[in-house]
């Protein structure tokens, strides 16, 4: 069975990731593309031999598609995802999945009501070093986990977004949240995945202190406490101007893990008994190195649909990671530690 595929939004994330990865997947056929900028949709349609639209509602009316990728500004994620689910398609939505908990819950409800898959494109769970780190933590060989630091920063979306400095990424009414939504939510999802537990408290310092003329945050540092008492920091930045930093370090009773923190080894495990194990698992892909064109996200989504299996990052998982950055934003505004509700 070949899955008829539609991509809504033909900007950078679609051009460099979704479209490329769907074309590489033998189980999918790119049937339609849609973008409010007609020229952008036309170019993608020509390259991928797909029908082009400038109105996603018209696309859903005229095309019977099996799966849809939502590659739009953050404020449209929920409404367009729900429209696609209501139209009978399985949905892969870019992160952050929504701009509020309520929106996320409506997306989850729409997926459940229509019997369709909803997956959020948190690609860091598919990185080999991250998967190996999770395996080591789960094995218990590090003993009790004490703390962590996780960071995602680069110079900003100017060089990545198709609209450059005029990108929606910098506009609060379209993005809702800046570096925290673009990068921080990735690390919130990742640290939950590696540690295998949820967070209960969040303190956030969220600022716009690096870029002029933008209405969202470009630097944020958060402090997190997990349900078992693990403490750590999460940093997200559009002001790491010399090099991208996508590293995570785990500190534990019997050793530490340095993940994507060494120039030669994607994972370094150091133990208190003196052992050091260097893992060469392939460096994490970055925008600087030509983009991420084999993240595993699309392949996993397609496989989940074909095998009728729950995606690794379903709506519930996406909502939990979203809630961490929403709590950080609230903490930054109020100056108070935010408690995360369970469930």
UniProtKB/TrEMBL annotation:
InterPro entries: Gfo/Idh/MocA-like_OxRdtase_N, Gfo/Idh/MocA_Oxidoreductases, GFO_IDH_MocA-like_dom, NAD(P)-bd_dom_sf
UniProt domain Gfo/Idh/MocA-like oxidoreductase N-terminal: residue ranges: 4-122
Domain of life: Bacteria
Residues of the GFO/IDH/MocA-like oxidoreductase domain: 130-258
Name of the protein in question: Predicted dehydrogenase
Database matches in Pfam families: GFO_IDH_MocA, GFO_IDH_MocA_C3
Organism of origin: Salimicrobium album
């Amino acid at each position: 069975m070949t899955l008829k595929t539609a991509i809504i939004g033909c900007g950078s994330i679609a051009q460099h990731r979704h479209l490329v990865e769907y074309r590489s997947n033998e189980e999918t056929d790119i049937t339609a593309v849609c973008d409010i900028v007609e020229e952008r949709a036309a170019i993608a349609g020509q390259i991928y031999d797909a029908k082009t639209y400038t109105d996603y509602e018209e696309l859903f009316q005229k095309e019977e598609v099996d799966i849809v990728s939502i590659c739009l500004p953050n404020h449209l994620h929920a409404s367009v995802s729900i429209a696609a689910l209501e139209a009978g398609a399985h949905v892969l939505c870019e992160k952050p999945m929504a701009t509020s908990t309520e929106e996320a819950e409506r997306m989850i409800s729409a997926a459940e009501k229509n019997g369709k898959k909803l997956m959020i494109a948190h690609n860091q769970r598919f990185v080999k070093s991250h998967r190996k780190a999770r395996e080591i933590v789960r094995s218990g060989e590090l003993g009790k986990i004490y703390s962590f630091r996780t960071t995602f920063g680069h110079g900003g979306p100017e060089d990545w977004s198709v609209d450059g400095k005029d990108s929606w990424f910098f506009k609060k009414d379209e993005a809702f949240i800046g570096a925290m939504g673009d990068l921080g939510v990735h690390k919130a999802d990742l640290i939950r995945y590696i540690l295998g537990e949820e967070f209960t408290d969040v303190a956030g310092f969220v600022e716009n202190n690096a870029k002029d003329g933008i209405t969202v945050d470009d630097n944020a540092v958060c402090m997190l406490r997990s349900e078992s008492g693990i403490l750590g920091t999460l940093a997200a930045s559009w002001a790491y101007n010399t090099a991208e930093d996508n590293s995570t370090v785990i500190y534990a009773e019997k050793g530490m893990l340095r993940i994507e923190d060494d120039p030669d080894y994607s994972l370094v495990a150091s133990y208190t008994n003196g052992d050091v194990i260097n893992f060469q698992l392939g460096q994490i892909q970055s925008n600087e190195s030509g983009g991420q064109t084999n993240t595993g996200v699309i392949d996993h989504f397609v496989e989940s649909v074909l095998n009728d299996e729950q995606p690794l990052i379903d709506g519930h998982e996406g909502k939990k990671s979203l809630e961490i950055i929403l709590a950080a934003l609230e903490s930054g505004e109020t100056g108070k530690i935010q408690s995360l509700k369970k469930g």
